[in-house]
From TrEMBL:
Species annotation: Alkalimonas amylolytica
Name this protein carries in UniProt: Outer membrane protein
GO biological process: peptidoglycan biosynthetic process
PANTHER family: MLTA-INTERACTING PROTEIN-RELATED
InterPro entries for this protein: MipA
Listed GO CC annotations: cell outer membrane
Family named by the database record: Belongs to the MipA/OmpV family.
Keyword Membrane appears in the UniProt entry: yes
Length: 285
């Protein structure tokens, strides 16, 4: 762990240890010491932009979270949160890095949460690659499973939400970083609750090189590629319609644009990544 990472943790831990709060992964208020368990059944898909990495079908989407006085777990994210003001919170968070998920059909990091969205976005095409330029995920070395840690800020203003994240590799697998900002707005209508959000994700050069680069340790017959840092915008739209105390209809679509730092990699065949789902969800508690 680098010195600046340790300093951040040391500065925040005393406040987190003495103050109660709610976790800040979710965009809305969550009561302390509360469990949430829900399951969605339907059909959807999470795409992979890589050669020979199949799209992942989505039939069941679990929603599992627990928020204590300080610590919380929310759909794969562990953290400890502190309410700074009634409208702002700060959390220390950790997660399984999602980049490895694109290399496999079935991977836990490719399962979207209930807060994903629905939208109709144009498909951005890429210039077709020659056979010599294409590299299958089956030809390269296995990408590492990495664990990230970082800081998250959440804000709530009427129907608006804002989430800022700073992630860094704490497992020593890719030595990279990621920054993101996501702003969203809720719309309550007679046809249910809608949520529209826009996000921007920056991924460092080290992270990009570890997962999408082709370095000297790859098989000799493969081309070499060293990507730079990547900037990836994203749009999301979701819909939810309550049917009873526990049941609701839901749909979402998420679309992310991939910039040239990623699309120029011989591993990549698409300049976008998207996920969608339509089905019913039931909340057990």
């Amino acid at each position: 762990m680098k010195v600046w990472q340790a300093i951040i943790i040391l500065l925040l831990m005393p406040a987190l240890a003495i103050a109660g709060g709610r976790g800040a992964v979710d965009d809305g208020y969550v009561e302390q010491s509360s469990w949430r368990l829900a399951m969605a059944v339907g059909f959807g898909q999470s795409s992979s932009p890589l050669f020979d990495a199949p799209n992942m079908p989505l039939y069941l989407l679990p929603d599992i979270s627990y928020y204590g006085k300080v610590g919380f777990f929310d759909n794969g994210i562990l953290g400890a949160g502190l309410d700074v003001t009634p409208h702002w919170s700060v959390s220390l968070v950790s997660r399984l890095n999602p980049e490895k998920g694109y290399f496999y059909r079935w991977h836990v990091s490719r399962i979207p949460s209930f807060e994903q969205t629905f939208s109709s976005m144009p498909t951005v095409s890429m210039e077709p690659r020659s056979a010599e330029q294409r590299v299958s995920v089956n030809e390269v070395n296995r990408r590492p499973t990495a664990w990230d840690g970082g800081v998250q800020l959440n804000a709530w203003f009427d129907d608006w939400t804002l989430r800022l994240n700073g992630w860094t590799d704490i497992s020593g697998k890719h030595h990279g970083h990621e920054l993101s900002a996501v702003a969203g707005r809720h719309y309550q209508t007679g046809w249910g609750l809608w949520r529209l959000s826009a996000g921007l994700y920056w991924k460092s050069e080290n992270l990009m090189q570890r997962y999408y680069g082709l370095a000297e340790d790859e098989p000799l017959h493969l081309p070499r590629y060293q990507p730079t840092a990547s900037l990836q915008p994203e749009l999301e739209l979701s819909w939810s319609l309550p049917l009873s105390a526990g049941w609701r209809l839901m749909a979402f679509y998420r679309y992310r644009w991939l910039d040239s730092a990623m699309t120029q990699s011989p591993l990549v065949q698409q300049s976008y990544q998207h996920s969608w789902f339509l089905g019913w969800s039931y909340r057990f508690f």
